[in-house]
Amino acid sequence: MSIEVRNINKRFGNFTALNNISLDLPSGELTALLGPSGCGKTTLLRIIAGLEQPDGGNVLFHGKDATGSHVRERKVGFVFQHYALFRHMTVFENVAFGLRVRPRQERPSEAEIRRKVHELLELVQLDWIADRYPAQLSGGQRQRIALARALAVEPQVLLLDEPFGALDAKVRKDLRRWLRRLHDELHITSVFVTHDQEEALEVADRVVVLNKGGIEQVGTPDEVYDQPATPFVYQFLGNVNLFHSRVHDGFAKIGELEVAVDGHEDTQNAAALAYVRPHDIEIHRTPENGSTFAATVVHIHAIGPIVRLELARADATEYVEAELTRERFRELALKEGEEIFVKPRSLRVFIDPNPAVA
Amino acid sequence: MSAVISHPLSVLPVPASRATQEPAWVRWLLISIALGWLGLFLFIPLAAIFTEALRKGLEVYWASLVDPDALSAIKLTLIATVIAVPANLVFGIAAAWAIAKFEFRGKQLLLTLIDLPFAVSPVIAGLIYVLLFGAQGWFGEWLQAHDVKIIFAVPGIVLATIFVTFPFVARELIPLMQAQGTEEEEAAVTMGASGWQTLWRVTLPNVKWGLLYGVILCNARAMGEFGAVSVVSGHIRGMTNTLPLHVEILYNEYNFAAAFAAASLLAGLALVTLALKSAVEWKTGAELRARNEETSNEH
Amino acid sequence: MAVLRSWKSHSVLPGFGLALGFTILYLSLIVLIPLSATFIKTAELGWGEFWTAVTTPRALASYRLSFGAAAIGALLNTGFGLLTAWVLVRYTFPGKRLVDALVDLPFALPTAVAGIALTAIYAPNGWLGQWLEPLGVKVAFTPLGVVIALTFIGLPFVVRTVQPVLEDLEAEVEEAAACLGASRWQTFAQVLMPALWPALITGFALAFARAVGEYGSVIFIAGNMPLISEISPLLIITKLEQYDYAGATAIAVVMLVISFALLLLINGLQWWISRRHGKRNP
Q: Is A13 in Cβ contact with B11 (below 8 Å)?
């Protein structure tokens, strides 16, 4: 089922949590709401679920306005960051809860409930702990039970609030791959909230990057990583080098380096910020006219398969981070203190909206 | 900015999400029932005490308070309290030090035994000292031979008061000191502090509010105790009457205005106790919040 | 030292021997030895005499009243205490902080004062009594008066045991129930109540234990008629005043045994509950 979010506003006191958010979530996709803490992603998720009322705007489920309907009527499965399992109920009873609270005429028979719960527990591979209490489970197990419980009511939409946030790194990695496989099996429209870019890029079909209550970019993981729409997205997704630059007649200048900037042919001498990812930086022993700038190797950190270099620009006080493969590093035979030439493979330039006084 | 202007009402704080909130009529119905219940059992009795005390005017009220028997009852109540509270305070600190800072077998039993006086009827608390020190008690003859009076005298009243207020300070301190662990004390000891220095400079400052809380409750009960004291006192006017016993005697003599005047003193004390208690709770709450904010800022 | 080590784990902190020694000495002198006097005194009686002393019609009537009225009072307090705690934790209304503070009044108010205040209210010519009298409801000087006094005395217990539990409940759990389609009432009955039961039972038991032994607030309002409105603690005092020490002590022993059993039950219950549900992430 598709979800549409139209012009949603939400304030808490003087704090604007969501500022006029509109978003389409197509049927059957797994979408990540990604952003730093306080960006409004959890509030948006809770508004979609009906746990929170927006101050303005609408939420449409399958084209129908659901803004006024109670969370009970929305048929959403919600998975909480801290699981929110009922601690006095066994795993079985937790999963069966949504079936047992249905009105009498809609309630499945006891045999049907048992069948369904065991089916779900098999789906999350935890059938063998049906009689335990939540307190006896590990964090990863609890989260899988919380998911099974949410799925028991056959939700049209699955919403997950930082589902792996409370788990340790190893479990988190396993569980997110498992979630991806589960989604490929069930194809239920799903939205999950995360502040972990790696998680969003690895798991989601689409990533919605939020910042300060607004949407920065919506796109596939490749799109948001390779073609960030805003400086924020660039900085939030992965490491990035930032150069202060000026754009003039369609070209940005960084030292001796000149790059063509599309759409700024008429811009005159404007302050700009140029972004390049560390692994998009090539290192050369000799300069190439107009496409490199000079720098000194300050530090060399060899980390597993990659080598990270800290470089100091020769013509400015800026530092540059570059990542090389081990082969390339060996080829170059670099040492600390040597002068080299930096060539960015792909560089994005944004006109600085608040330039520092030059 | 347009969003702000078009939704002026949204600036109001939203208390709870709608999903887990009862309808307004349910809320107000429940609040009304609860307040009605508390009104019947708390507010009306409290109002009754002060109204009845002042029924015959301020002069009668004042006269019943400065009556010599009333004054000697107040004095005896203060004496019993001044002995009982510090005694139980010292005990509470010792017990909490042993129980909260060390691991040993039988701790659970000791905790249960400390709670015992709460499970004992005040009348029985008085009775046990009569059995020990009364004329027919175990030590009765010996005491009589040496002309020592405990029952129907001040020492009995003090003992009974100590018994009924026995657990108050210990019960407040033990969970608090357990929660604080032993790291700070161990740090102090490794820096060369003696046991007393550690207790005085590290442990007690950490639990000062809990300590005060326990002392406030202990004090209120000590001043107000009736049943236990009643058994051991002998009700000798001007000699072994505490203020609560004085209230009883006046009441049984149908001297209601004087009885309620004395009662209003004790009720005032109760209100002061509640105010202090709330202040301490508020203070500890504020400190806890400040500490939580500090730790959350570190992350 | 070898013996010591086996029951006490090692610690660098000093003062254990002194603190524990003083604790046990003080506990023994003030509580344990005097309490044991009741049992030893009773032993003088012999089983037959003891049984006769504690099963006289007057004694039996007093247990019925003390335990019965205490149970009714504690039950009333359980229901209304839950409601009061709920209202104080979940809702806002003017004067809430003041009301919250006043809930502890029965802890702070001397029992004799409570007794005469309640009597002034419920006596036939009293504040409320004058309105109840024409309706044929007699409160003061009847067993109903005992129930009123014991309800007053136990009022804070359930509120104060339930309040922190309600405050600590995660809002997420209720939201989860709502997401799963549970109505507000289903959420309350099936999700919140199981979490509140331990606190309710503890509060009930504490209120009951306190009420069973209560003396000061009862004797003014009860009328103290043997076989009708005479509570067990009063019977002990009556027997003492008649110099029937053995008889008084026998009844005291019955009450003590029941109170201790109750105390053990509460502790056991709390231990069982904390073992079952209190376990954290392993």
A: yes
